Amino acid sequence: MGPAGTKSTRRHLVETRHGTMHVRVWAPATVDPAATPLVLLHMSPLSSRMFLAIAPLLARTRPVIVPDRLGFGD
C-alpha cells in the first residue's frame, strides 16, 4: 500500500499505431465506480516521473493515469 490507503503504482505498456506508450496508474485501495479518473500529462521534454510525488496523493479518491508521451520517459 502507498500513502493513505493508495495502492502502489502499476506500470503498463500500451501499443498504439505510433509505437509503444508507457503508462503509470495509481488507484485508491477501494475504487468508487462513480469516481472520475484523473489524467496527468507531463511537459516536454520531461516524463511521468515528474508526478511521482503528487500522483499517489491525488489517487486517494480516484484513479490517476499518467502516460509518457511517445519518445519521452520509459
Structure report:
With about 70 residues, the chain is mainly beta. It has one domain. It has one helix spanning about 55-60; strands at about 10-15, 20-25, 40, 65. Strands 1-2-4-3 form a four-stranded mixed β-sheet. The radius of gyration is 12 Å and the shape is globular. The model has no long low-confidence stretch (mean pLDDT about 85).
Structural class computed from helices and strand pairing: mainly beta
Q: Overall pLDDT, averaged? A: 87
Q: Compute the number of strand runs.
A: 4
Distance between the termini: 23 Å
Integer-rounded radius of gyration: 12 Å
Query: What percent of the residues sit in helical stretches (DSSP H or I)?
Result: under 10%
How would the global form be characterised?
A: globular
As residue ranges, the low-confidence spans are none
Secondary structure tally, helices: 1
Largest sheet: 4 strands, mixed
Strand content: 25-35%
Q: How many structural domains are formed by the residues?
A: 1
Seen as an oligomer or otherwise, the chain set is single chain
Q: Could you spell the SSE succession in H and E letters?
A: EEEHE
Task: Write out the strand line-up for the largest beta sheet, numbering strands in chain order.
Answer: 1-2-4-3
